[in-house]
Amino acid sequence: QVQLVESGGGLVQAGGSLRLSCAASGRIASINIMNWYRQPPGKQRELVALITSGGRTNYADSVKGRFTISRDNAKSTVYLQMNSLKPEDTAVYYCNVLDYKLVAYWGKGTLVTVSS
């Protein structure tokens, strides 16, 4: 089992920045891919960014150039640096990890609200 705890959400004005963190505990040696998802109000959950154990990253088109995902394996933590935030970035942001058997674990989410 892997447990995930997100932090760093909050209220920010458009154009501002936030940094989300997700700390993993438990069977951290089994963690392969670390992801950030988000679910805007009334919409489906969507993948925002991922980072593999080897450091490869991928981003949703809507956040490319504005968001940066990174991970600190020594701290078992994944980060999402969000810059130039827009009102449409308002969502609950969820941390997700896949282990090497592709079992998925989820955090409880952290709310990001971007005011115009």
Topology summary:
Blueprint: E1 2-7, E2 10-13, E3 18-26, E4 31-39, E5 46-51, E6 57-59, E7 67-72, E8 77-82, E9 91-99, E10 104-106, E11 110-115
Parallel strand pairs: 2-11
Antiparallel strand pairs: 1-3, 3-8, 4-5, 4-9, 5-6, 7-8, 9-10, 9-11
State the main characteristics.
single chain; about 120 residues; mainly beta; 7-stranded mixed β-sheet; 4-stranded antiparallel β-sheet
Describe the structure.
The chain has 116 residues and is mostly beta strands. The protein has no helices and eleven strands. Strands 2, 4, 5, 6, 9, 10 and 11 form a seven-stranded mixed β-sheet that branches. A four-stranded antiparallel β-sheet has the order 1-3-8-7, with no helix packed on it. A hairpin with a 5-residue loop joins strand 5 and strand 6 (57-59). The chain is globular, with a radius of gyration of 13 Å.
Order of helices and strands: EEEEEEEEEEE
Nearest-integer average pLDDT: 96
Number of contiguous helices: 0
Shape field: globular
Low-confidence stretches: none
Percent in strands: over 45%
Largest sheet: 7 strands, mixed
Q: How far is it from the N-terminal to the C-terminal residue, by CA?
A: 40 Å
Radius of gyration: 13 Å
Helix content: under 10%
Strand tally: 11
The helix/strand class is mainly beta
